[in-house]
Amino acid sequence: MKVAGRTAIVTGGGGGIGGAIARLLVREGARVVVADLDADAAESLVRSITQDAPGSAVAVGADVSDPAQISGLIARAQDEFGPVDLYFANAGVVGPVGLGDDAGWNTAIDVNVNAHVRAAQLLVPGWLERGEGYFVSTASAAGLLTQIGSAAYAVTKHAAVGFAEWLSVTYGDNGIRVSCLCPMGVETKLLRAGAESGDALGAAATRAVTTAGAVLSPDEVATVVLEAVDAERFLILPHPEVLEMYRGKGADYDRWLGGMRRYQAALLQTAE
Description:
The protein has 272 residues and is an alpha/beta fold. The chain has nine helices and seven strands.
């Protein structure tokens, strides 16, 4: 799908990967609704990206854990620019360290998974009528491998990948395209959250991501994302080595689990 002239929504768009995607979409000629829990961050980004393209983007403060706010977000996009063509489900949370508590799990499930499901529930019927639409899910390499440190993050990112797969299988022959972004380390606020948690397991989580491969800039990731959308490719891997890791996991699960336990032990020793 070519993005020029299309209407897109980017959640978690106030900065990081979402902000970089929104900026690149506008540069490529799309009309964009930038949504973020931090309304000021969304407004600031829109002011920046519309300097050379007035009227090409609007900001909306939105909590995607709230179904009503997702609905309002889609309505705003339709009012401003017309029917939504692309939805970038990018908002995400790290979740609690370790096993966590119910409150932390509920937030992670709502933001990392349910927000994707609820957006699709609202958008897919219209896309089926029009014969096209594009859903881009930001998951994580943790959704293909796992995440040392946070059970909630690892589980919900696996679920995000699974939901994106289901959308593609179910509606891919009806004009609905789906891509799933699974990066490792990207220089965003979430990257350092574990190290700032004060928990050894959290620190190990950050070190696992920052030492497993290159830490990319959000702009680098956004470029890969838009290239994948143009090619209508499902799996988006800004870190190509993730594919080899994933193949190794599938080839010998027990060996992989043992290796991850040893890796975690080494990270914890370093953190301590």
